UniProtKB/TrEMBL annotation:
GO biological process: methylation
Keywords linked to the UniProt accession: Methyltransferase, Transferase, Ubiquinone
Superkingdom of origin organism: Bacteria
Organism from which the protein derives: Halobacteroides halobius (strain ATCC 35273 / DSM 5150 / MD-1)
Presence of the UniProt keyword Cell wall biogenesis/degradation in the record: no
Protein name from the UniProt record: Methylase involved in ubiquinone/menaquinone biosynthesis
Domain (Methyltransferase) ranges: 53-151
Residues annotated as signal peptide: none
GO MF: methyltransferase activity
């Protein structure tokens, strides 16, 4: 696949408004049931006693609500105001506001938290949004910064076995725009590249949705430098 196409960052930045429009026009765009990756992550978190969780790219909150219902203290960041509003409304309606703290934030900027305050970080398809590799490196470093020693980072990303990979409009690197959405498709090499400062516990391929989409669920542990 072509990898030398210039990256037009202004096009990538417009994805925020695209997602904002989608979330505003369709309540529960991805359904109300927790995703399979969230269920799997919750089991891992519980087994290891990880209680204070940071979720990046919470969307409209289907996984957020699930984590809170299962006893986790959940902090959530999403760059769409409509998503943040949806999560807050659901948390209030379900009496989960004490367990959920949600904020509008672009993860290309430093995470608004101190060092080593979270037991774990979780994100479902945030990594495969319209981020360049250098932006993903920054996000990975920020996650490492806010995690406690031996903290877990569990994320999912669509991979290069996906049927959409290489289709649509090439936006540079392994990014392709299909149906208005720009996706950064991951190879195992990309997972390994972004794991600096972490130990790779697991890279599990799974399918989701009607295409179906093909994704990796990656489980990383922060390396204790002490």
């Amino acid at each position: 696949m072509k990898k030398d196409k210039p990256i037009e960052k202004e096009i990538l930045k417009k994805q925020c408004q695209h997602w904002e429009n989608k979330f505003s026009n369709k309540t529960d765009m991805f359904g109300v049931e927790a995703s399979v990756p969230a269920q799997k992550a919750a089991r891992k978190f519980k087994k290891e006693g990880k209680n204070k969780i940071l979720e990046l790219g919470g969307g409209q909150g289907r996984d957020t609500i699930f984590f809170a219902q299962n006893g986790f203290e959940v902090y959530v960041l999403d760059y769409c105001k409509s998503g943040v509003e949806a999560i807050n409304k659901k948390a209030d309606k379900m009496n989960l506001s004490d367990s959920i703290n949600v904020k509008c934030h672009d993860v290309r900027d430093p995470l608004p938290f101190s060092e080593e305050v979270f037991d774990a970080c979780y994100s479902h398809m945030l990594y495969c949004m319209a981020f360049t590799t250098s932006e993903l490196e920054f996000i990975s470093d920020e996650i490492k910064r806010i995690l406690k020693p031996n903290g877990l980072n569990i994320y999912t990303a669509r991979n290069t076995n996906d049927a959409d990979y290489g289709t649509g409009v090439h936006r540079g690197e392994n990014m392709y725009e299909v149906g208005g959405f720009i996706v950064h498709f991951f190879s195992e090499e990309k997972v390994e590249h972004l794991a600096k400062g972490f130990k790779i516990i697991d890279i599990n391929e799974f399918k989701e949705g009607g295409l179906p989409r093909k994704l990796f669920q990656v489980t990383l542990r922060k390396i204790d430098s002490n």
